[in-house]
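Researcher: Here's the sequence for the chain we discussed earlier.
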Amino acid sequence: MNTIKKRAQLVYSRLDQISPPQIQFLKQQDPFRFMISVILSAQTTDKMVNIVTGPLFSMFPTVKDLANAPQETVEEIIHPTGFYKMKAKNIIACAQALVDKTIPSTIDELVRLPGVGRKTANCVVGDVFHKPAIIVDTHFGRVVHRLGLVDTKDPEKVEFQIASLLDPSKHYRFSMTANLFGREVCHAKKPSCNECPLRDLCPSADAFLQVSSM
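Model: Thanks. This is the structure I predict for it:
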C-alpha cells in the first residue's frame, strides 16, 4: 500500500471516530428541494441557503410550482445568495426538466440538468440515493490538499484522486467528515493546528505552526 493511500485511510478512520454519526448542512431533505438547495449553495454559505429556501418553498412548494415561477420573484427571494439571476434561471429550468419525472440517480444523468455540476450531482447521489460520492467544495478541497492526499486543486481531479484512495463504501462519509473538519478545525486562514487531531498525519502543519508562532 502506498504512503498516500495509507494516510488517506488513517485520516478517514480518525475523522469517522471523532465526527457525529449523521452530518447535515442543509435543512431541506426532500430530494428535489435538497438538490435546489445545493445549486443555491454555490459561492455562498449553507446558513444563507437555509434562510432563503424557507420562503422559496413556501411560495413554490412543488416541482411544478417552481417550474412555473416568475423569474423575477425567485430572484428577489434568493438574492442574498449571490449570482441570483443565473441561479434563479437555473433552478426554474431544472424544475421544468423534472416536471412529472423522478430525480436521476447517477452523476451522468444529473449533470445534464440545468445548474447541476459534479458537486451538486455528488451531493444528490450521496445524500438522496446513498451511493458512493466524493463531494468537493472549498472546505473538502482545502483539507485533502493540506493533508497531501491530492496534488491538485482542480475539483474534478480532486474528486477522482480521492475516490481512488478509499473504498467506495467510505466515499460519502469521508466527504461529510472532511467537510465538517474543514469548517470547524482546518480553517482557511488560521487552521487550529495546535489542537488538530490529524496533526501527526498532516505535512502542512509545521508550516502553519511556524507562521502562528512568529
